[in-house]
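Hey everyone, long-time lurker, first post.

I ran two proteins through the pipeline my lab uses and got sequence/structure pairs for each. Pasting them in order. The first:
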Amino acid sequence: METLLSVEQLAAVLHKSPASIRSDASRKPASLPPICRLPETKRLLWRRPDVDAWLASFVGGKSAPSLVDSAQQLNVVSTNKRGRPTKSEQVRRARGTEVHR
């Protein structure tokens, strides 16, 4: 017989609060191991082997690349200024004069 984990037990395994486990189960179930739904019950239960396999899928030899590393590898340089253009930039663009930010 496989061991079933309750919300509180899964919270202890994942080092999260039971409230966040319940919230994640309804709002973003992909962020949790597969839920074991028993017929005619609303209890949230997880099979221990599923939890172990789900956790093992995140273990790797390399650390995850950061966004900065990815951008540097692609040599992506953003030349656009963030936010809404100024009024003078909008007027120049409407007149057909190129705006260099």
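...and the second, right after it:
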Amino acid sequence: MADQQDFQDVKNEVLQFIRSFNRSNNHRQDLKNKLEKLHKVVGYCPLTQQEVFILMTTFFKYIDKFKDSTFQSFLISCIPDNQLDKKFVRDLVEWLLAKYTSKAYEVKCDILLKWFYSLLNHNLIDLTLLDVYYTFLFKIIEIPCFLNTVCPLLFLLNHYGNTLPWMLTTARTLKEMNQQKKSLSLLIKKLDLNQTKSQMSGDCLFWPYPAGISTLNKILNLKHNLPSQGLANGANSTSLAINDIIKPGNPASAGVPRAQRVSAAVPLAQISTVDAFSHFFHIISLPEDILTLLSSNLGVMKTILDPEMEDEFVTKLKFKLSDMFQNKEGKYKTSECKAILSYLYKFQNLIQQGIDCVSNFLASYLKTWNGLDYKKEVLHLCEWFVFDSKLSLIHDFLKPLHLLQMTANPEDQIAYIEMYGKLYNNLLMESDKIVNKSQPRMFLSLEMGEIVSSKCAWMRQEDTNMDMFTSLGRYIMQECSTSILNSSSHREVLVYTTLDLCVKCLSAEDYFNKSLLLMIPPSIVFLPLFSTSLRNISSICFILDKYKEYQKSERLYGMYDAEFNLIDGYIEDFINFLWRGNGWNDRSRGEVFASIPDSEVPHTVHEPLQGRYSSIQINRSLHVRKHVAVVTFSHPIMKRPGATHITDKEFLDTILSKLSPTLASFIKTYCEEEIMF
């Protein structure tokens, strides 16, 4: 412990000296000595990011003042590889470009080359600066002492593409002068291959990250030997997942024209099989550690596209999850555990599929989870939970989460509701891929080389499929209703979150031709009437209108009579309250407050609110209702002798224009007979 404190004291002493250093004080030799001491202790007492920034600032402040290469070398070498800043490297490269001929700068060039390797290993290459990197490396490669170091570096850097003719010419010229250098021969082959690829036409994948959803879709369809098809409505979330996993070097480059982007083109239009694609990965050496693999752009893409990696990936992932979250010896940091959960969530978003062994891990982990550790990451993973039976869904997933949700604070309950909605939509999407597109699932659970589980097999059985989604939808609505009724201070936002879930789930059902699986319960229909926000009333109007569209659908003609009768009853009661201002009839009152004991069921419209809503909430909700029901004032005018239909309609349109478009459309659609036009 004392030694560690000594290292810390030395580091603080040197950094304090650097902060107060003044070149005019004529103590440069002291600074050199201090930096030499710092160089010896940084391995035992790492620098913080702020301390690294101090060193970088000092270096550029005096970069042209001191000609002593030893001083500058010590200053540069004190900065750890894993704390490099892209802007700092870029500025250093640009400065060295003007100084490379001087022998005094060879040491700093050597340090910079080591940094380049670190940038490649940590996936920190800035794609917008490839031209600068290439210019620098092709200049110092002409210095004999750098030839052996720069050739492999250029070879690796060429994975990122942007090969230009002058590079190939330079390499061939060097080869003529260095016939025995095999590294130059390999570099020439790589440059030649990249230049050939960049000249091909057709649909291209801009490496190392996909250029868009259509390209990713083509890759995944290529994986499954399927024709290219458009992705579902969830494409935007997939796009975000791509940008999260496979990071562009500069977000601003999104607006740069394709022809000006710094990247290599892989001609997908001329590739018909995964094997044909895999030769682009033939020199990539993937890391053994699964966490490092998932954090690597090339590792992620190779894992998806290389069928030989599936079994190995699943085996390593199962072991890693088990090892990390048992963690009895405390050998893994909290940040590492969070990182692998986050990477797995993004990876599943990317392939648009739940991974069996990840769901198995969740089923085990949720049984002892306290609802707090890695809360955000675990709930994200739950969005892609897959199962093989209703029993498994209930006992392994819904039951543990139910107990946690009931005791969670309102903010966390919102996160649970949003998670359930995304889970429902993701299962709909997986069902569509399996049933309608016959797309095989990837990364199945294996044991002794054989599949040990058939998760999602129930999706292929039509009756089981519908029953599973109907049951899950009913459960989700019950959880939402319970959360709303048990909350007082956050009821408004919980109602809005639930209605938003319903809208998204109904839209997903409509897209995948699975209408009326999610039926909204009476409590969710009528509670927005007592909302203090028009937004919630507008949302429920939109949902009821969506159900009414289904009733007119030829595809559903003669089906779901009971469900449509229920919806008609909802609409009738909703209109009675909004339009006529009559309040609840006996049926609605009994359905909405079914969870309240009989002795507490009131006989007037206002009494149900007592005890569950404050007087301020009641007044606000009634104000909202009066604002919505202002159209009732048009009745006396419409019934006035001599009134024309045109005048009545214009008057009503004027009133409805003050309401939200969704609500106005709802009222006009279902009140035409009452309004008489």
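Reply from user beta_strand_b:
Welcome! Quick read of the second one: The chain is about 60% helix and 0% strand. The two ends are 87 Å apart (CA to CA).
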